[in-house]
Amino acid sequence: MDSVRIEKNGPVTVVVLDRREVCNAVDPGTARRLHEAFVAFDADDASSVAVFHGEHGHFCAGWDLRAGAQLDPAAITGDLEFGPDHPHPLGPMGPSRLLLSKPVVASVAGAAVAGGLELALWCDMRVMEDDAYFGVYCRRFGVPLIDGGTVRLPRLVGMGHAMDLILTGRRVDSAEALRIGLCNRVVPHGQALPAALAIAQQLAAFPQGALRADRLSAHLQWDLPLAQALQQEWQSGKACIPEALQGAARFASGEGRHGRSG
C-alpha cells in the first residue's frame, strides 16, 4: 500500500498520509511522496484547496525515528541542502519548505507531534479533534525542529507560548491549542476530516484571485522572508542530526515511547 494517496473532491484535493503501523510517521520515501503530492496539487488548475489528512486515527507522529536510526547524517544533510531561491525545496518531512499558491487545511486527529506538528503548522488552517494533541516530542531525543517549527510556531502563537512548547516538548491538548491559537477549530472525535472538507469547499467557492493574493501577502509580510527563515533554521539545526540519529536509535530500542520521558 502506498503511504501517500491523493483523492479528488471537485475543487478540493485530499492528500492522505497512511503509514498506520507507525502512527503516520514519515520516512524519507514518504517525505518525497508528500512533497510530490503537494507540488502536483499546486500545479493543478482544477484544484483550489487541499486537505491534509492522516489516516487511521493519527495526523502524524513525526519523523520515523526507527528509519532514521539507520541513516547516515552526511546523506541526510546532502539531500536536503537548499537555497532561498529554490522553487520547490524538499524538507525532511516533505512539503514543509514549500510556499504554495493555494491554501491547505489540516485535518488533525490523534497525534500531531514533532515533525507532525511542523506539518500541521505548515498548513494554513488546523481543524483538531477534541482528543487530538500536539507536542514537540522530539525534544527528548535531541532531534531539532528543521521543518519550519522554529519559524512558524512563534509567528502563530507568539514567542512566549512557542518557547514553552519548543523547550519543554510537553503535550498540548485541544483546549489549550484553541486558546493559544495553535488550532482554528475543535470538533468531536472522528469529525476533523468532514469539518476540514467543509472549510475547503467554502474556500474553493470564493473568487480565487483575491483569496490567493491576500493569502500570499499574509505569508510574505514578515520581516524575514519565509525561505530565508527556513534556510536559517536548517543551517542551525543540521549540526544536531548526528545526535538526533542517536536519539532515533534509543527510540528504536524502546525508550520514551508514547510521550514518556524515560
Structural notes for this entry:
With 262 residues, the chain is α/β, with parallel strands linked by helices. It has a single domain (4-192, 208-259), classed as 2-enoyl-CoA Hydratase, Chain A, domain 1. The protein has eleven helices and nine strands. It has helices at 28-43, 65-68, 73-80, 115-122, 149-157, 159-168, 174-180, 192-205, 208-220, 226-237, 241-252; strands at residues 4-9, 12-17, 49-54, 104-108, 111-113, 125-129, 133-135, 171-173, 185-187. 45% of the residues are buried.
Task: Just give the CATH class.
Answer: Alpha Beta
**Can you name the CATH architecture?**
Alpha-Beta Complex
Shape estimate: globular
The separation of the N and C termini measures: 33 Å
Mean pLDDT: 92
Number of strands: 9
CATH topology: 2-enoyl-CoA Hydratase, Chain A, domain 1
Within CATH, the superfamily carries the name 2-enoyl-CoA Hydratase, Chain A, domain 1
- With strands numbered from the N-terminus, the spatial order across the biggest sheet is 1-2-3-4-6-9
pLDDT < 50 runs, ≥5 residues: none
Q: Tally the helices.
A: 11
Largest sheet: 6 strands, mixed
The secondary structure category is alpha/beta
User: How many structural domains does the protein architecture include?
Assistant: 1
The percent range for helix content is 40-55%
Q: What is the element string, with H for helices and E for strands?
A: EEHEHHEEHEEHHEHEHHHH
Nearest-angstrom radius of gyration?
17 Å
Beta fraction of the residues? 15-25%
